[in-house]
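cron nightly-structures :: item 1 of 1
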Amino acid sequence: MPSTGRATGAAPGVGDIAPRFCLPGTGGRTYCLEDEPSGPVVLVFYPADGTPVCTQQLRSYNEDLSAFDRLGATVWCLSPQDVASHERFAAEHGLTLPLLADVGKKVGAAYGILGPLGFYRRSVFVVGTGLTIRFARRSLTSMTYLPADRLLEAVASTTA
């Protein structure tokens, strides 16, 4: 396992090696970060399926999937709910983005996005070649998210 260049227990940031993981997700698939080397992987951490802000956020990213595709980027959305919850949420809102189940919140903890009560903080990371984090944004509130156009700009700046 490569060194992250950060202190043990410190949240990873830009320039660090992204924590590796494999998680079950929608579509009956397991998603492993190290298996996606062809382009940037956008990791979208969101608090919960079916909440108003999360629904708005994921629908906006879903609507712009072709723009992410043009940049060669893959978008994965992670939350602590199980795959069955994700499948219902995706079906109800027509989401085609993969929704990954971090039920034990181990991936959330590895990325330093858990709040004081253990809830996911709405956060986004762009992981580039060599599994290096190229962009990181952790929100201190669950009510705000990075709009799709700004996230696309962040992805484009990491591939330029």
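cron nightly-structures :: done
The chain has a mean pLDDT of 90.
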